[in-house]
Amino acid sequence: MHNGLMKDKIASHRQFWEGKGPSLLLLSPEAAPLYDTTNYDRLFADPQLMWESEMRRAQVLVDWPTDGIPTVRPNLGVIFAPSVAGQGYEVKSDQMPWPGEPLGWDEIRAASLVDVAKAELVQRAEAFYAIHRAHGGAEIAPYHPDTQGVFDVAHLLYGDGIFTAMAGEPAEQARIFELLEISLDLYLKVTRRIKEILGESAGSMIHGHGSPQGVFFLKGGGRAAEDTTILLSPAMIRRFIMPFVERSLAPFDGGFVHFCGLHRPFFELLCTCPLVRAIDLGNPEKYDPRWVLEHCAASGTVLYSRLPALDNEDALTYVRRLGKLVRETNARVILRATVQPRHRDEASEMLAEWRELTRV
After folding, report:
1. Over residues 144-171, mean pLDDT
2. Which ranges of the chain would DSSP assign to H, the alpha helix?
């Protein structure tokens, strides 16, 4: 793959977002863990080692039959944005970072005074991107670290007391709204700084969501993860979460939202938000795929996610089954396949069948 082919893929993704052509299929030549955590403590501390690790994952996708763009990112974990506010963290070998103790209220309020550009992990990310600019080549795209989302950041900073406060007296609830405003400000500053370093426009992006291949977003330059939200009732989500999802994505002309677990009402609320361009389910096996695709089709929301295979389902049968379901529901999908082709020719055949089934 070379720069011309990168441009071709971006052009095909542009057509996809414009509602033309087939849905997109992301295929990998090998089964691999979501993150490379081998000797992770060393990778975390050294941008060069982190970049080399990410490049090893991405390079196998260069010129591989897939709709995805090979991607790399500084994989610094969920503590990236909270660390900018001064929250500590613990890094161990062979696992992702653990957040430290919640901050005191005065420390949380002081987060608004932090110079994001001088924060340690932001500078580490900047060093990663500088290495990639110098040595990565034009065929592999860098993208955002894990910025989390407003409520996830707020939960990490404040701790589990956030839940009782949300259901508490008016003064406690008022504090949580102030916390969410502080977390929104932090999220926006961090996201803007990353986009500035990348030279990326506000309203678009290439996003890989933890994997070594990603997608160009024509509209939607923000990404958010809101895993903690699944612990809340629909009423609390409407009151405390959705306004901040909208305000976090609005400066970027929308974006991508991920959450783990099972929470159908939250999925439905995200689908009704016009700024949510695409949704990723961290646990798609907990949902009926037809239900998911019908809701996406009805709202015009793209499903950018894995979908599970059936027991003993081979790669071609998997693509045919889901391709037919996409066609029946009229959904637009970026499928991160969970069944790997046995060889390059089978990957090409999977792509051809998928494109024929999902073409509009």
Report:
1. 98
2. 3-17, 40-45, 47-59, 80-84, 105-109, 120-135, 150-158, 161-166, 170-198, 234-236, 242-249, 264-272, 289-299, 315-329, 344-358
The rounded mean pLDDT for the chain is: 96
φ, ψ for residue 101, nearest 5 deg: -65, 150
Residue 229: phi, psi to the nearest 5? Answer: -60, -25
Contact 197, 125 (CB under 8 A): yes
Tokens of 269: 């609320």
> How crowded is residue 118: how many other Cβ atoms within 10 Å of its Cβ?
9
Residue 89, Ramachandran bin (φ over 0: left; ψ between -120 and 50: alpha; else beta): beta
With a cut of 90, say whether residue 301 has pLDDT above it.
yes
Question: What is the radius of gyration, based on Cα positions, of the chain?
Answer: 20
List, in sequence order, every residue forming a beta bridge with 278; answer none if it has no partner: 256, 302
How buried is 243 (Cβ within 10 angstroms: 0-12 exposed, 13-18 middle, 19+ buried)?
A: middle
CB-CB neighbours of 299 under 10 Å? 17
pLDDT range class, residue 9, cuts 50, 70, 90: very high
Percent of the chain with pLDDT over 70: 99
Q: Could you tell me which residues come within 8 angstroms of residue 164 by beta carbon, excluding any fewer than 6 positions away?
A: 172
The residues that bridge with 222 in the sheet, in sequence order, are 255
Q: What is the DSSP letter of 210?
A: T
* Tokens representing residue 278 in the block: 């695409």
pLDDT at residue 1 in the model: 42
Q: How far apart are CA 358 and CA 356, in angstroms?
A: 6
